[in-house]
Design brief:
single chain, mainly alpha, two-stranded antiparallel ribbon, two-stranded parallel ribbon, transmembrane helix
Length: about 190
């Protein structure tokens, strides 16, 4: 895990230096597009259940909600572009530098999910949450999946979330640096 931490810090620092101009530009565009400050912060559950503020580019007008309850008409066209290419997540490089996140790991969820896990399911809280990982890759079209069901909250809570927990526990149990690199490559591709 020391290699993972060193890799995360060095890569996040390099990428932040290279992309700071793009991130500032996106914050400015998002501010104009959403009529609200373009850098969005939200409470998320991290390692050991500790709550932290995640940084993202704002993609919706009005009150930003979690993607579980978001309907696509609230997302701006520019915001959808940022989401489609995961550009809205670039500010999370700051979370990595602060030691709150990793490039690869279970996705940090809003309160009411990971923080209430019981038993072996809490194993996924033993690692830093990630920008990408096996569950994120499997459900990269989560918004599209949820838009096709009658009750997206029920479907998320009873179908998607339990499967993500299972996938994330397998990730923690079978972690390797080589697998992390493969998840990063698959995310970029």
């Amino acid at each position: 895990m020391l290699i993972k931490s060193i890799f995360d810090y060095i890569m996040a620092l390099i990428l932040l230096i290279l992309l700071v101009g793009l991130i500032i530009c996106m914050i400015f565009i998002s501010t104009l597009d959403t009529k609200d400050f373009g850098l969005f912060k939200q409470r998320r559950v991290g390692k050991c259940g500790k709550v932290f503020l995640i940084y993202k580019i704002r993609t919706m007008r009005g009150i930003q909600k979690d993607t579980i309850t978001t309907s696509s008409h609230e997302i701006t066209k520019i915001g959808q572009f940022f989401r489609d290419y995961k550009l809205d997540e670039l500010p999370q490089l700051i979370n990595i530098l602060k030691g709150e996140m990793s490039f690869v790991g279970p996705r940090p969820d809003v309160e009411g999910y990971a923080d209430i896990l019981k038993g072996e399911d809490r194993l996924m809280l033993q690692v830093k949450p990630g920008i990408t990982g096996p569950a994120q890759l499997k459900y990269r079209k989560e918004e599209e999946i949820l838009s096709k069901v009658d009750n997206p909250i029920w479907y998320n809570d009873n179908v998607l979330w339990p499967d993500k927990v299972k996938i994330n526990i397998e990730y923690v149990k079978n972690w390797s640096f080589k697998k992390d690199i493969n998840y990063i490559i698959k995310t970029v591709i």
